[in-house]
């Protein structure tokens, strides 16, 4: 969601900025723009639509060695060229890009900008107009910048150019990600190291309410009061091949295919010297001391959390509640006496989850973040971090992060169970290795799964995904995948619940995808399938080897029943992928969606 890049150096900035924005495309956006600064002044180019449209609009003759760029995911004001960033102050002296949401923008506008005519509907424009107003009142740019930031309520990552300050980018961050990249004779600004990996792998992390004056050879980090801060850079452990599609047509397909490797990597990363599964002792202790675990997450991560609940309760014997983060913070249930909070977030930046983390920390409760992104906001702010080791996930639809989340949750539950002296009657490490092989078999069955997508989904307006127990949770994830990338109205349902109302929607030809991987409820889900078939549905049963029956459409390789979600989700991912492809949808960048949802 929204991305920022900036470059200040000695070579032409255009291509570096455009390439950087292309690397941020995965975050989701609906317009984009750049501002280029040279001796002639500042030139702003912005377009609604894709970076390709912006690229086409950029005058190749302009040469500038300083610039900022932005991809916008609309919050305040429709996606159009006017509301696209960069925004300029009334005199065009200041040019600014912003990620985040300024909650008090309209009161600031009323208080300070009565006489300024605004040219966009955005909250962002208020920031740049305020800076100009304060500079007109006698402040230097740096002081006006810090003074304005101190007035803002909300989240921001900002990069700003001043037409009268050559060789400077003014940068600030609060609750929205932003990094400074260091180079030889140049420096860069980026929401995500991936954007600028093309020119450097050395980055400096910024903390909330920090300001940076970025010049070609120096960076000065300071507080909003101007107090200097020293911070060492780190090397981003990313490889260009991690963030390129290679020979794949889509990142989503590449990431689906990476899942066997991700499971193997997780086993390796969570293994101690004795070859046993192991988790940071502080995390195991936190779990042992808690009387209840509260899992907080959104979307796909929430679906992984539901499976995590099953693991913690069944394997480790710890009671768990799973909550949608956007609900929890504003509608909090009665908490237990010794709660422990586990935030599941691929990106580590989800604003809905972060607002809960901030509130729980303020209440003094212990917190853990399970994330794919080391150094992300939720990772830094929680007491402990568990990493997914899945490698960058670029497609908007989450696939390998989900399987990684489920696998790590199983490992933590298993290690905590051992720590609590609870007998576990299977060897998780061995079972996970079997899962990795089973996933490989499934990702090698693409043709058959493409055929299922063609038969059941590609021509449908709607579809149902049903299951019971763990299969119900996988059905929720399957339906979400189908909705987000193929725009088919899909619902994930507990098999037994359909007849309590929703079965009214079943008509002649409605596709119903049913999962049967759990022995105890396999007869029940088959009963539910019969109920919908009697009303005209076309069933597609995916069963686990050993539970299969005649007429099942697809049989999943057998794995330990508790780990069945890790394999059952693969056909869901692949049939969603192929349905989207067959419908001509933009698989990696579905409409209206953002990868990293940094606004509430
Ligand atoms: C769906 C998807 C989203 C995310 C959700 C939370 O494929 O990716 O539902 O799971 O936006 O994001 P994270 O996990 O980054 O907190």
Please tell me about this protein's structure.
The structure is a single chain. The chain is globular. A hairpin with a 4-residue loop joins strand 13 (219-223) and strand 14. The protein contains 19 helices and 25 strands. Strands 3-2-4-1-10-9-11-15 form an 8-stranded antiparallel beta sheet. Strands 5-6-7-8-12-13-14 form a 7-stranded antiparallel beta sheet, covered by helices on one side. The chain is 36% helix and 22% strand. The model has no long low-confidence stretch (mean pLDDT 95). The relative contact order is 0.09. The protein is α/β, with parallel strands linked by helices. The structure holds fructose -6-phosphate.
Number of helices: 19
Strand order of the largest sheet: 3-2-4-1-10-9-11-15
Low confidence ranges = none
Mean pLDDT: 95
Q: Work out the radius of gyration.
A: 25 Å
Molecular shape: globular
Give the class from helix and strand content and strand pairing.
alpha/beta
Reported for the largest beta sheet, the result is:
8 strands, antiparallel
Counting DSSP E segments of at least 2 residues, the number of strands comes to 25
Amino- and carboxy-terminal Cα gap: 12 Å
Helical proportion, percent range? 25-40%
Assess the beta-strand content as a share of residues.
Answer: 15-25%
Ligand identities: fructose -6-phosphate
